[in-house]
Amino acid sequence: MRPTPLVLALVSLGLTACPGAAHRPAPEPEGEAPPTAAVYGPAELAPRGMGGVAEPPPAPPALSSPAARCPEGFAPLGAVCHPAAPALVESRSACEREGGAACEAHAGAVLEVLEVAHERYEAIALGGGEGREATRLLARQLKQKLDGAERLGAAYEGVIALPAGPWRHHAQVQEGALWEHLAEGLTTIPAPAPLTPEQQSIFQAALEEKAAPVREKARDLYVQAVTGAAGLGLEDELIRWAQARLRAIDGSGAPAGEAEQE
Which one of 6, 149, 177, 186 is most buried, by most CB atoms within 10 A? Predict the structure, then answer.
């Protein structure tokens, strides 16, 4: 029996599905306290160096092989990635020796380098082509997008691991935007032709199921950034942007509750 176009599309994109089986949406998380108004904050502002993302994206796969999962110009150190450029290796050494201001200077320099990589990552399009070629093209694009997200995420985690005050919370926001962008991209992938309306619905539901944990990862990073920044008395453009993204993810009418802690 030849596989249907729906099965071919789902398998080529790494989406699990059994022919004829009803799609079951991912269960809602239980027992999670909503953030307070302080977490949601006021204004809707876009962060710097995000490649123009106004309505971003969610949850990364585990770092499978750190050595193979670092962006260009970065090298593995444990489960995270750090820059390999001599000047940044030197500034990291200064951070390890001196701490404090040296770590903040190093973290700021690393995030500046990552802005360019982040913009390149966001420029990777999903979709295009016609017929079966469209499915093959999409599978290649999706692999490139997922690999790029995993590598960038590991690099942001390298900054988050530093004792770098505000900069580590900025890295949490940027990584959150990385995963939210990916989730948004997953849910807007066009269904390949030829699919019936029912098959298109199953395809889109499978994409949404794939995107849900990614979006949750983004939300967790935003909450960590906002609550961590509140502990430092920090409220700047990037933190307010994270507050706005939390409102967008949770819904503008979300009730206040106990503040979530890191």
Answer: 177
pLDDT at 240 (0 to 100)? 93
Structure tokens at 178: 């990385």
Which of 50, 36, 38 minimizes the C-alpha distance to 179? 50
Q: Is the peptide bond before 27 cis (omega within 30 degrees of 0)?
A: no
Angle between helices 100-122 and 166-187 (to 10 degrees): 10
Q: What residues pair up with 81 in beta bridges, in sequence order?
A: 76
Say whether pTM exceeds 0.90.
Answer: no
Instruction: Determine contact, residues 140/13, Cβ cutoff 8 Å.
Output: no
Q: Residue 30: count other Cβ atoms within 10 Å of its Cβ.
A: 5
- Three-state secondary structure string covering the chain: CCCCHHHHHHHHCCCCCCCCCCCCCCCCCCCCCCCCHHHHCCCCCCCCCCCCCCCCCCCCCCCCCHHHCCCCCEEEECCEEEECCHHHHHHHHHHHHHCHHHHHHHHHHHHHHHHHHHHHHHCCCCCCCCHHHHHHHHHHHHHHHHHHHHHHHHHHHHHHCCCCCHHHHHHHHHHHHHHHHHHHHHHCCCCCCCCCHHHHHHHHHHHHHHHHHHHHHHHHHHHHHHHHHHHHCCCCHHHHHHHHHHHHHHCCCCCCCCCCCC
Are the beta carbons of 226 and 253 closer than 8 angstroms? no
Structure tokens at 31: 């027992």
